Amino acid sequence: MTFRAFLVALAVTFLPLAPAARSQAAVDLSKSQMPSVISVPPEAQPSDHFDVEAATNAYLAQIPASARTRSDAYFEGGYWLILWDFLVAIVIYWILLRFGVSAKMRDVALHLSRFAFIQDLVYWVQFLIFIAILSTPLTIYEDYFREHKYGLATQTFGPWLGDQVKMLLVNMILGGILVAVLFRIARRLPRTWHIWGAVVTTVFLAFGVMIAPVFIFPLFNKITRLDDPKVTQPILSMARANGIPAHDVFQIDASRQSTRMSANVSGFGNTMRITLNDNLLRRGSPEEIECVMGHEMGHYVLHHIYKDILFLFVVTVAFFAYLRWGLEWSLARWGPSWRINGIGDVAVLPLVFYLATLFFFVLTPILNTETRTNEHEADMYGLNASRQPDGCAQGAIHLGEYRKMSPGPVEEFIFFDHPSGRQRIHRAMQWKAENLQLFLNQSAH
Ligand SMILES: [Zn+2]
Fold first, then answer.
1. 322 Cβ contact list (under 8 Å, min separation 6)
2. For the chain, what percent of residues have pLDDT higher than 90?
C-alpha cells in the first residue's frame, strides 16, 4: 500500500465519526468557557486597605463553577495521557524489536539503495509510518476528539488530518536528515559517537527552533502584518522602552486550530518579530494584551531561548551518555535475537526511542520546572514592563480554560510548565499592592 493510499484509507475510516464530535462540542461550550470580559472586582480596586489574598480570591471567584470543573477535568486528564502516551510508545517500540519488524525494514532499505544516507532515510520513513499507524487511535482521541469535547479545538476532521500529514512530512525530512547524520557519526566514530551525537543534536535542535517561525509555522497558519495602530502602537512603544528592536507586529490565525490565546517574540537581530494570535486579539482586553506582550518581551530580554538551548545541551549530553550505556547493555543481551548488528545498524532505532521515552518520562518534572522557572521570570518582567496587574490577572483566568487554576504544590512541581493561574493572579496582586500609589494617583486625577 502506498503512503497516499494509506492516508485515504485512514480518512475514510475516521471521517464518519467527525460530525458527532462537532455537535457534542457545540452543546455546552458557552457555559463552560471562562468569561470573556473580566472586570476588576471591588476587592482588587486600589485602596488603603488593599489585601492581596482578598483580591486574589475575588478574581478567582469570577470563574463560574462549571468552567472550573471542566478546566480541572481537562488538565487532570492530561496527567493520565502522559502515562498512556508513555505506555503506548513503549509497546510500539517493543513490537518493532521483538517481532523483527525493525530488522525487516532495515533489509528493505538495504535492498533499495547502495548509499548509507538513502538507506537510513528509507528506514526512517518506514519507521514513522509504522508508528503513525499504531498510534493513530490514541492520537485521534487525544488531539481531535478530546480537544473538541473540551471546546478547545476549532478544526473539522479533514483539515486536522491535513495538518497531521504535514507534520509527518516535516518529520520525515528534518528527522530523516538528523537520523542519517547521527548514524554516520556512530559508524565513523564508534568510541566517541555519544559525545559528537550530543553536540550535533543540540545544534540541530537550536537551528530548528530558530527557523521554525519562518519556515515551519507558515505551513500550518497564515501570518500577517498587523495594521491596527490602536493595537500596535502601545506594543511597539513598550518594545522601544525595553530596548527591543521590533518594527512590526504580526498576527497568526491560531483560531484555525484552537481557541487558545497566545503570543510570542521570535528571531533575533533583523528577523526579530512580535506575533500575537488572533484569539488573544479577539478576546483579550487592551490591558491583558499589554501584560501578555510584556511577558513575551521578558522572554526576549532575559535571553530565555539561549538559556533553554544551554539547558537542552546539558540534558542531551546526559541522555547520550545514558544512551551509549543502555544500547550496549541491551544489544549484548538481545541484539542477536532482534537481528540488530550493533550501534551503527539503523535497525537499532526503536531501541533508541524506547530508551529515550523512558529517560524523558522520568525527567518530566525537571523539564517542566526549567520551563516554569523561565515563565515565572517572564511574568515578573511582564508586570514591570506593562504595569497592568489587572490585565495579567485577566489573562491568567483566560488561560485557565486549559490549565488547572489552583493545583497543590507537588502537582504544580510535577505537571506545570507554566505557573498556575492562582499563582499568577497572586503575584499580580502582590505587585499591585507594592505599587498602589500608581493606581491611587490615577484615580485621584
Ligand atoms: Zn511565556
1. 355, 359
2. 76
